Amino acid sequence: MARITAARSRPRMTGTQRRAQLIGVARSLFALRGLEGATIEDIAAGAGVSKPVVYEHFGSKEALYTEVVNSEFDRLLAAVTEALGADAGPRVLLERAAYSLLDYIENHTDGFRILVRDAPPSQPEGTFSTLLSRIAADVEHILAKEFSSRGLSAEVGGMYAQMLVGMVAMTGQWWLDARSPDKATVAAHLVNLSWNGLTGLQKDPALGHIPGGIPGSLPGGAPMVLTLSAVLVHDGEGRILLVRKRGTQRFMQPGGKLEPGEDFRQAAAREVNEELGLRVEAADLSDIGHWYGPAANEANTFIDAGLFGLTLPGPFGSGADPVPQAAAEIEETLWLTPAEAFARTDISPLLRDHVLPELLAAEAGTPQ
User: Which residues form a coiled coil (predicted)?
Assistant: First the structure.
């Protein structure tokens, strides 16, 4: 007698399961083809259902698209908000937020493509711009507190928040297709650029290098820019050497202008030897960065400075050799701890705004 085998039917999805399936299929198709390019027929075929099933759950293609967009909007906003809501300092929050965006792009690529491409008809102003505005509001709150603690105007926090969020977002859009280097490396470089830029913020920034001057600005046109090298000299007691040049009021690091044919390192070694009576080779200096900002003693002048470090045996005054001595245009020298130097009001902007904050943060173990 012939056996009759009943055909196995697929388990029937619940309404919630079917809705989630349709959203997943639609997300992939919308990311690939956009709102106009994807059709209800494509979505139904991808889900293995008829067109009426799609309409039963969402009513229209536009409504389904809005559902997909809102889902991704909430997912990304939740990730970044969680990163920014941690109980941590601003540097840590910046790292977490940058990484969370790139992590979302890596794990939800289709969702990010949809967010940055087509706005749903119900949100013609653009979903991605709305998302960035929400994130910028959180960042503004963080920056306002940080600016206030540094004596900067908290009122400009909103503007800087837009700049910061825009930079991270544009990098994310680039990395969406580039995918190299990896997300941790990209996040680290983002933080490097943004954090070090925030660290060196000037209280009252102004454009100073527009040809012919800036309309409405003070007379005098664009300021002069001096290219020079400066050397942070340490002794064996954790002190740094400050110098004051003849005819000036502010203390600064040893150093001076580059001569024709010199690079920053060569100029640094020559200046230290001339100003302090030492015999230092360029190779003895360690590179500690670059700085651009207002000059200490010249009005309407900015400096573009290469920064170098030099550690001498010391402590000086105890017979140690070599002993730095005021020479050439140097009228006075001081050996001070970074804290003692920072407490003074007669130090150069380079020391006050860049070098000493970095030294003090390193001593305190605070990440920069």
Answer: none
